[in-house]
Amino acid sequence: MVGGLLQGREQVGEQTLAYLRQAASQGVALVGVCTGVFVLCRAGVMKNRLCCVSWYHRQDFMEAFPDHNVSSDRLFVADRSRISCSGGAGTADMASYLLEKHFGKSTAQKASHVLLLERQAVRQQNLLQPTPPLMGEIRLTANPHVKRAAMAMEQNMNEPVAIGVIAEQLGLSPRHLVRLFQTEIGMKPTDFYRLIRLRYARALLRQGDMSITEIAIETGFSDCAHFSRQFKARFGLTPTELRLMASGGSYEEPAVFNDNYAGVRLFEEMEHVS
């Protein structure tokens, strides 16, 4: 099932949903690609199954299906007779996985060659999705635990999650996760978490659509005073000062701040450029 666009029109009609329910009741394996996972969930055939969606669609998915389990860090997930895929190039990896599972490695490799795919080996479902261009420091590490932890932080900026909880989700001790962050990017996970929240706040301030109080709440700070102190400590000026300078056209970011999309939530940023 490939779902198409999420906004503007209904993905599929009731007849298609009924067909999917009937297929599921007869034990047919169902596959959802990209937003096709939304359709399977609407049909009610993904309950108690892990759903894989692209990081770009994660927020939409969580709002539409808050009672479903979702992963946004893998290319695809095979949960018994339900397979969900993040889409894009991951679709080829899912197809190669299925060919290898049912017909053997040589058949899967031959199919990859016919399709002119560069890689020789089949990428397994637990391989990470490519990291979105959110955080410059994370581009410098290949450690999957650090990348997954950073993704969890980016997806929970308005209500920050305790580092111990993130570590537990990754099957690590908090101390081990701290060591990984120190080794890989040179800072504690708590400091990194605060950094991406402040960078996101800085981007929101430049856009000028939200009040400073709203931005403080959106980025997970308990009150404006605390937010302003942390912001000035990081960037050398208060949120109010940055907004005034930006609105007057007199503010030019120093090169050290010019990190493009670093810290900007792509769920919202991409809506502005699409």
Fraction of residues in H or I helices: 40-55%
Largest sheet, in brief, is:
3 strands, mixed
Annotation, overall tally of beta strands: 5
| Cα-atom radius of gyration | 21 Å
- Sequence of strands across the biggest β-sheet: 1-5-4
CATH superfamily of the largest domain: Homeodomain-like
Provide the β-strand percentage band: 5-15%
- The name of the CATH topology of the largest domain is Arc Repressor Mutant, subunit A
Per CATH, the class of the largest domain reads: Mainly Alpha
* The number of domains: 2
Shape: globular
Helix count from the secondary structure assignment: 13
Q: What's the order of the H and E elements?
A: HEHEHEEEHHHHHHHHHH
Average pLDDT number: 80
Oligomer: single chain
CATH architecture name of the largest domain: Orthogonal Bundle
Structural class: mainly alpha
Provide a compact summary of the structure:
With 274 residues, the protein is mostly helical. It has helices at 14-25, 36-42, 58-64, 90-103, 105-114, 144-154, 163-169, 174-185, 189-207, 212-218, 224-235, 239-247, 266-273, and strands spanning 30-33, 50-52, 69-71, 76-79, 82-85.
Protein architecture, described:
This protein is mainly alpha-helical. The chain folds into 2 domains: 14-114, Class I glutamine amidotransferase (GATase) domain (Rossmann fold), CATH 3.40.50; 131-274, Homeodomain-like (Arc Repressor Mutant, subunit A, Orthogonal Bundle), CATH 1.10.10.60. Helix content is 49%, strand content 7%. It contains 13 helices and 5 strands. The chain has helices spanning 14-25, 36-42, 58-64, 90-103, 105-114, 144-154, 163-169, 174-185, 189-207, 212-218, 224-235, 239-247, 266-273, and strands spanning 30-33, 50-52, 69-71, 76-79, 82-85. A 3-stranded mixed β-sheet has the order 1-5-4. Strands 2-3 form a two-stranded parallel sheet. Helix 4 (90-103) runs antiparallel to helix 5 (105-114) and helix 6 (144-154) crosses helix 9. It is globular. 34% of the residues are buried.
